[in-house]
Amino acid sequence: MERLRHHGGVKIAVVQTASSNDKAANREAVRRLVAEAARERPELVVLPEAMMADFAAEGGSVGEQAEALDGEFVGVLRKAAVEHGTAIVAGMFERSCDEGRPYNTLLAVGADGELIGAYRKIHLYDAFGYKESDQLTAGDVAPVVVRIGAHKFGLMTCYDLRFPELSRALVDAGAEVLVVPAAWVRGPLKEHHWTTFLTARAVENTCYVAAAAQNGKKYSGLSQVIDPQGIAIAAVGEADGFATAEISAERLAEVRKRNPSLQNRRFTVTPR
């Protein structure tokens, strides 16, 4: 674990681990990992995408693994949030109208255990020889921003990073931090893509990015928090662990004053 604090602001912990298809084991991992990260007293703990259950193999289905927003997995998140006094964001498969193709959903739970947001992944990973849309249903094209303390956090998932219009829509909706749980698949240059996109989304939007990724044999790891100048202020390598960093309203304002690129835009794009 590496840790570097910014002056003032809200402390975020990004957690790195690999889930499995054993949902009970994953729930126990959530309890343990949140408890470990909570020792650093963060206001937000970010867990990876698909923390409830891992993706199925190509040609398989996660339909039977899916749960409702009042199911066991969300119950564990809510209890952990209250027990440790921290908000939590984590990924799950949520039941949809199509029984065989649930949503890939991020849940945001407040420190009081209340559900404060749910984001259904818009951009499904139909790339690099994989077709996520065979297993999952895409969410509506709408930015989801939640408030935690005095700050606003925009939710996006993994492959969404490749579509800068979503991060811009989140920032236009008030997000100061982009929260990016992921299961970024390993492969040639994929780790480079991951770090490049995280940095680009921070710099082009002059905002923080907090990314929590799965690791192990399938996924790249490299969870990190990046500041509005594109500097990684906290990072985890390939192993299990977590990193914490503080986001600062003063730092955000300072960077946006020096680099007012959001104000200098000439194009306005409305998401389809």
From TrEMBL:
> Matching SUPFAM superfamilies, A to Z?
Carbon-nitrogen hydrolase
- Cite the source lineage: Bacteria, Bacillati, Actinomycetota, Actinomycetes, Propionibacteriales
- What species was this sequence derived from? Kribbella caucasensis
GO molecular function terms attached to this record: hydrolase activity
The protein's name is Putative amidohydrolase
Classify the source by domain of life. Bacteria
Keywords, alphabetical: Hydrolase
Q: Which family does the record claim for this protein? A: Belongs to the carbon-nitrogen hydrolase superfamily. NIT1/NIT2 family.
**InterPro entries cross-referenced by the UniProt entry:** C-N_Hydrolase, C-N_Hydrolase_sf, UPF0012_CS
Residue span(s) of domain CN hydrolase: 10-249
